Amino acid sequence: MTRKKSQTTSTRQKTSWANPKSLVTLGLLAFVAVSVIALIANEVGNTSTAAEPETNTAASTAEDRVVVYYFHGNARCVTCRTIEAYAREAVEKSFPNQLRHGSVEFQVINVETPSTVHFIQDYQLYAPSVVVARFENNAQTDWKNLDRVWRLAGDKRAFLTYIQDETTAMLQGSG
Length: 175
Known about the structure:
Number of domains: 2
Number of helices: 7
Structural class: alpha+beta
CATH topology of the largest domain: Glutaredoxin
CATH class of the largest domain: Alpha Beta
Radius of gyration: 25 Å
Shape: globular
CATH architecture of the largest domain: 3-Layer(aba) Sandwich
Helix content: 40-55%
Strand order of the largest sheet: 2-1-3-4
């Protein structure tokens, strides 16, 4: 009988995590852990974005132009930074003359600032994104969210080609 009692105690100890009090404790610990991770990620994102200028690479704004936007939030993952770097590289390497003359622009925009939050609705953004927009007489006439950038982030050559092709199509008016 003593042996049976110790087995029952041992069984209770093994399954004690399943009682409601333990489940609540585990849930709260998980919440705290996720909150701490989010705060750290946010701080890292704020520190790095403050150091990076978000500027337009064109010397002057032409009335007729194509703008390649990279939209991001405060917290930025490695893939987000890769997408920005590849998009910038695609535009700068493929359109150097157009950049210099202002017929192509590359802009990096944090959509989590009061003056830029409208872009979320304007371009139906739900994640960091690359958007190509055409302007004629300083009025936007067309735009396209390049939604394949996330799938292509692991294939630099395909990513660069995708950005180049979409920007070329927008320049030609067939975006």
